[in-house]
Amino acid sequence: MHPFTYTRVSDTREALNAARRGGRYIAGGTTLVDLMRETVERPEALVDIGALPLDKVTVTERGGLRIGALVTMSEAAAHPKVRTLYPVVSEALELSASAQLRNMATIGGNIMQRTRCAYFRDVTAACNRREPGTGCAAREGFNRTHAILGTSASCVATHPSDAAVAFAALEATVHLLGPDGERRIAFADFLLPPGSTPNREQALRQGELITAVEIPALPRPLKSGYLKVRDRQSYEFALTSAAVALHVRGGVIREARVAAGGVGTVPWKLPAVERHLVGERPSDSLWTAAAAQAAQGARPLQHNRFKVELLKRTVERQLRVVGGTK
Ligand code: SF4
Fold this sequence. Notes:
CATH architecture of the domain at 224-323: 2-Layer Sandwich
Order of helices and strands: EHEHEEEHHHHHHHEEHEEEEEHHH
Shape: globular
Structural class: alpha+beta
Largest sheet: 5 strands, antiparallel
Strand content: 15-25%
Helix content: 25-40%
CATH superfamily of the domain at 224-323: CO dehydrogenase flavoprotein, C-terminal domain
Distance between the termini: 51 Å
Bound molecules: iron/sulfur cluster
Number of helices: 13
């Protein structure tokens, strides 16, 4: 492991000062420490923010939820408000990683986690995300688990977070604190598709700290849930996943929020599916027709063509489960 300094801070001002001097934030460390061991990441200085007061889940004035960046995945998943208002978030978290990791990893770290592309983690392989300008070993290599949506010539890696798919579906907001003060950014703008700069993964400015993720108030009743399809039943990343939230009143779908995971370079919102649902009455034929829109724009690679059909079926199944016609 590359040598580094370690500082534990107790307030946000201290954290921002340490980051200004080049420090890298660490909380649960479940991704970063792994990557440091493999020398994929080589920070000179770590700033431990684990003691900052960012560990609460609160109901916002408008009736949404604000989840502090240092709330652990297991705390967020078990929180009564998260479970009752947004079960899609609880389910996405509970289907992630292992119980031990969920007890350590934080919400802020979860949305910051880096890709599981095996070539990214192999420091001998060409990888534009790890070493800009070196190429992409996955394009011509084994790319079964890679993305079919949002890819570029530079990178085809998926974003691994399940919770991020739920946040994208619900149109959450990320709260940030930096040298220039606080700001908010829509979740859809927070994680960046690779384009020609896959090494730039988030719209964070130098030294900025994630303080919370806020889920907006949505009309009630809201039914939601998360489906994850993977090679084995636990401790595995998604081949495809679907986060669905539906507001049905008077027998008609008034609001629909749908996003997919395991298929995009970022969590992939599905506006065409949403548009197909709104104003319609739940039915099996509706779920099938809406899900048929899910893979619009897909560009599969040599080994992941199966994801096009799997994505549609994943979305259809979860629409049926949440929509109540299963
Ligand atoms: Fe690197 Fe992205 Fe290519 Fe994987 S897909 S090798 S992360 S550039």
